[in-house]
Amino acid sequence: MHAAVIVFPGSNCDRDMAVAFEKAGAKVSMVWHKDTSLPSGIDVIGVPGGFSFGDYLRCGAIAANSPICQSVIAHAEKGGYVLGICNGFQVLTETGLLPGVLLRNGGLKYVCKAVDLKVETADSAYTAGYGEGDTITIPIAHHDGNYYADEDTLKKLNDENRVAFRYVKNPNGSLQDIAGILSENRRVLGMMPHPERMADPVHGNTEGRILFNTLVDQLQTA
């Protein structure tokens, strides 16, 4: 299984994501934002956390217009898998691959701490390793993680069982406590919490590693 991790100026979780994929058994290629194509045979693209382009304009807005993002969009439109974490989630909303936007946190402050998440669905290649309704602990680290969408979009996400994770105690004001969502084909996941930071026993928790292991296993057997 071959994963590509996109690197933008200001990315700071690209290596963490690559290591999480590698520990799950994937081959990983790092791809610079100015590249116009992906390596051959890519199964999943990881869009990592950080502060791409210094979060100027809107978080993820400049990154979404990088040359490589046209290949990311094409990969997703062909049914490929894409995982966007934190700033990566913001980039995916800016590209239109996921609905909604990430606004400034409700408290207007950067929040960095471990939070409890409720697994809303096990019906995806990302979440199948958890049980629906499970509570897991994953860290957040963001200033603009307040998920917002209009009422019709929220209804569609709920009706189609596309909310992947909700906060148990909302840390940022996200509507309906949403922490992560899936695309219509369930192959694109955006989430603000950082599972790659809970992927090694030395971190004191490996609940995030389950996501990467499950995804790699699912794609290897597909």
TrEMBL record:
Enzyme Commission number: 6.3.5.3, 3.5.1.2
Cellular component GO terms, alphabetical: cytoplasm
Domain of life: Bacteria
Localization terms from the record: Cytoplasm
Active site positions: C86 (nucleophile), H194, E196
SMART domains in alphabetical order: GATase_5 (SM01211)
Pfam families: GATase_5
Molecular function per GO: ATP binding; glutaminase activity; phosphoribosylformylglycinamidine synthase activity
Gene3D superfamilies recorded: 3.40.50.880
Pathway assignment: Purine metabolism; IMP biosynthesis via de novo pathway; 5-amino-1-(5-phospho-D-ribosyl)imidazole from N(2)-formyl-N(1)-(5-phospho-D-ribosyl)glycinamide: step 1/2
GO process terms (BP): 'de novo' IMP biosynthetic process
Hydrolase in keyword set: yes
PANTHER family: PHOSPHORIBOSYLFORMYLGLYCINAMIDINE SYNTHASE SUBUNIT PURQ (PTHR47552)
NCBIfam families assigned: FGAM_synth_I, PRK03619.1
Entry function: Part of the phosphoribosylformylglycinamidine synthase complex involved in the purines biosynthetic pathway. Catalyzes the ATP-dependent conversion of formylglycinamide ribonucleotide (FGAR) and glutamine to yield formylglycinamidine ribonucleotide (FGAM) and glutamate. The FGAM synthase complex is composed of three subunits. PurQ produces an ammonia molecule by converting glutamine to glutamate. PurL transfers the ammonia molecule to FGAR to form FGAM in an ATP-dependent manner.
Quaternary structure (record): Part of the FGAM synthase complex composed of 1 PurL, 1 PurQ and 2 PurS subunits.
Record-given protein name: Phosphoribosylformylglycinamidine synthase subunit PurQ
Originating species: Roseovarius indicus
Gene: purQ
